[in-house]
């Protein structure tokens, strides 16, 4: 039996610490096996005393001991620990890391701001379909801003604009006064100007990562009743971010932590971090922020497990391969045959079809069988839900919503279509036609003998005639009628 490649990554940040255990699966996909988080508040000591107190070091030691136990319990043979801004600034940081080595048996490296930006960039951008722009990571003590082009990091800067640091230094009142918020905004603008951060160019995207941004996205997602579970790939519009910042900045801390989506541990630091992020978005003139649910820890794991960054298309393929491998009901032969038939049908009957829809039809044909592991009758609904709740790298949320909608509609012609799957080009009619093609490919594949590829010869005229030599019988009357209503042509299937 092949030995599993599993690593544990411990990240000691300025505000919190986290451990994540990753596995490189057979598809070359980075899969999360376990994770845990602890509030540490290191930056408070550093900013008030210049070094870590005994109480903070004891609290951190306890958290790291638990992190090690969790990583070991999940099967990690290798544990890597890194520390960032607060430990860099603490006078006794190196002494504390030596104590950790003696007492816990693993070495913690205090990484530079440049290394932090590099690992963060690799982890954050890899799983998104983006080419150029700015990536920012707001931690507790600092913010890294990285410019990238062609999915390659060009330059970066580390600024002392972490969420906890900004809140404690500038926002003394509860809630803060407008003057205090204005002073923080002015400070952020000055820092960005001095660092040479420029506005976005045409085609650039503003990408963000870190716990503060994810909490802001959660607040927005809760208010919208958003259908996709993963924050990775979520788009947070700047106008709604401004509304959230105003709400947070005018709410007392004891009531702030009751807001849906906000972690109670961030109630005292969220306003400072939110103001920093909103001011950055305004400064670079970003209409929205694309949220990455990944970052430093994923960047470290990718290097340790020798997983290439890859293109968005290769990441989509690896993500889907990893997903289907988890289900006993999935058949590679059936999936390949269904995918081939679906692609042929789509190219034939949708000659001006959109590439995003063509790709979604083929992907839907590939993953459809995973629903059989749960329930054959309702497999379309199960697959649709799985697509919306599983973190799939390389996909935008619109692509995931479209894939999910096509699968669900293939099984139920009356199923609702998720609004984010639609835009000016992709209408309800487009989704319905794609769903019929998927359903048709599935019915054909199910009736053809195993072990042979399925040849489909379409003839498009006043009717659509499909010649399928391998098909022994066809009696899907309801699908015939559904096809004719959607495409305006009768469907004829013959051997």
Verbal overview:
This protein is of the alpha/beta class. Helices cover 48% and strands 17% of the residues. It contains 19 helices and 14 strands. The chain has helices at residues 42-49, 54-73, 85-89, 93-104, 113-126, 163-170, 178-194, 211-224, 238-249, 253-256, 270-284, 296-304, 312-324, 332-349, 355-367, 379-389, 397-411, 428-447, 477-487, and strands at 5-12, 16-24, 30-39, 78-83, 108-110, 133-138, 143-149, 152-159, 205-209, 235-237, 288-291, 457-460, 463-467, 490-494. It has a six-stranded mixed beta sheet with strand order 8-7-6-9-11-10, sandwiched between helices. It has a five-stranded mixed beta sheet with strand order 3-2-1-4-5, sandwiched between helices. A three-stranded mixed beta sheet has the order 12-13-14, with helices on one face. Helix 9 runs antiparallel to helix 11 and helix 14 runs antiparallel to helix 15. The longest helix is centred in the N-terminal third of the chain and has 20 residues, at 54-73. The chain is elongated and about 80 Å long. The two termini are 45 Å apart. The mean pLDDT is 93.
